[in-house]
Design brief:
InterPro entries: Exonuc_VII_S (IPR003761), Exonuc_VII_ssu_sf (IPR037004). It holds the Pfam family Exonuc_VII_S. This protein is mainly alpha-helical. It has 3 helices and 2 strands. Helix 2 runs antiparallel to helix 3. The N terminus is likely disordered.
């Protein structure tokens, strides 16, 4: 039976082929940091590339990876909004910053 991924178990391997094939339960996404989500995407890619998953399990893993990619993009957008660009220095030598321009 598939298990819900938590932050504590985020480093666990992606569902193995047997567990993924036996479960019809959707993979539940939980909020994680960028690095954890990216690591989970990499594990899913390796599992998909192995060719050991059934078609149904592959589709579920693919859908999970897409959801994690969207989460990564949201986290990157949030980080970009927080970044300031050094525009120069004022007369007293203090740094002057401006918001990062939208692309």
């Amino acid at each position: 039976m598939a298990k819900k991924k938590t932050n504590a178990s985020a480093n666990d391997d992606v569902l193995d082929a047997n567990n993924a094939q036996e479960s019809d339960a959707p993979i539940i996404d939980v909020p994680v940091d960028f690095e954890t989500a990216l690591g989970e995407i990499e594990k899913i890619v390796r599992a998909l590339e192995s060719g050991e998953l059934s078609l149904d399990a592959s589709l579920k893993q693919y859908e999970s990876a897409v959801a994690k990619m969207r989460q990564c993009y949201r986290l990157l957008e949030i980080a970009e909004r927080k970044i300031s660009v050094l525009a120069g220095f004022d007369a007293e030598g203090n740094p002057v910053t401006e918001p990062l321009e939208e692309r």
